[in-house]
Amino acid sequence: MSIDLPLPPLTCLDGQPLEKEPLGDLIGDLMVRDGLLDAVVLASLPEGAAEWRVIDWPLEAIPDDPIEALRTINPALSFAVPLTEATIDLQPLPGANPRMLLAVASRKLVDDWIEVFNLAGVQLERLAPAQSCRLAAVNALLEHAAEDVLTLLIHPLPGGGRLLLLRRAEPVFDWPLPEEDDQLVREVTRCVAFYRRRHPSVHRLRLLFSAPLASQDHLQDAFGVRAELLTPQPFGSLVLQGLAMVERVR
Fold first, then answer.
1. pTM
2. Residue 232: which pLDDT band, with cuts at 50, 70 and 90?
3. Closest CA to 84 of 68, 100, 101
4. Is there a smaller number of Cβ atoms within 10 Å at the N or the C end of the chain?
């Protein structure tokens, strides 16, 4: 089964757990309540815990251990944490070119969340960036989309949301959204106009929501398309689509 657990205020900052014992108690109590103490847990890191980029693979062939190769190459990607000091999640993207979705988080952040789940007394099998989970959720839906279609995936969050623009199943633009409805609609409109100026081959739009949004009708009117609400799937189905565990430091 899939569980969406809002984190209490002041327990987490930019994805970093600040109050590990209370968070562990919260998760443990939830698992007891739902009779899931013996369950294997596949967890998404909180929003803001990881940074991500789409990269063209810099070598002629992808090696057997691409994460270690990427550490060796150590390209300048302007992450807050250097690749040599980060945990790394690397996912191939569909298409003819060897492009990959790279997500990184600090080792301390990942180790702290592992400690939280240990305190909760649950069996943590996998951790993954929220970005990778979100992309896996729509991959099968979008991988055969036409080249001239730009998909707007809006993910509501407390205090606003995230806008993810995709061509087929490849993310091309990621942006935070404000909370106030009118401002959110203006910001989405501005982002789409900016992208279409740079890529005039985009002729059609598709509007997806990961959860209901108050400004949904206004966005439909702004773009002249009907919105689609994604149906959540159990997290295990995302793993079957290729979601990997955040790489642990050896």
1. 0.77
2. low
3. 68
4. C
User: Structure tokens of 140?
Assistant: 């099968």
DSSP state of 84: G
DSSP output for 11-37:
SEETTEES-HHHHHHHHHHHHHHTT-T
Higher pLDDT, 126 or 188: 188
Tokens of 24: 């562990």
16: CB partners within 8 A, 6+ apart? 49, 108, 109, 112
What is the CB-side half-sphere exposure of residue 220 using CA atoms within 13 A? 12
The more confident residue out of 173 and 64 is 173
CA 40 – CA 31 distance, rounded (Å): 11
Contacts 24+ apart (CB under 8 A), 3-7: 3/30, 3/34, 4/232, 5/30, 6/158, 7/46
**Beta-strand relationship, 51-56 and 99-106:** antiparallel
What is the pLDDT averaged over residues 179-183? 92
pLDDT tens, 25-66? Answer: 999 998 888 888 888 888 888 878 899 888 887 666 777 888
Beta bridge partners of 166: 151, 171
Give bridge partners of residue 150 from the DSSP assignment: 167, 205
With the C-alpha atoms ordered 216, 221, 223, 228, is the resulting torsion angle positive or negative? positive
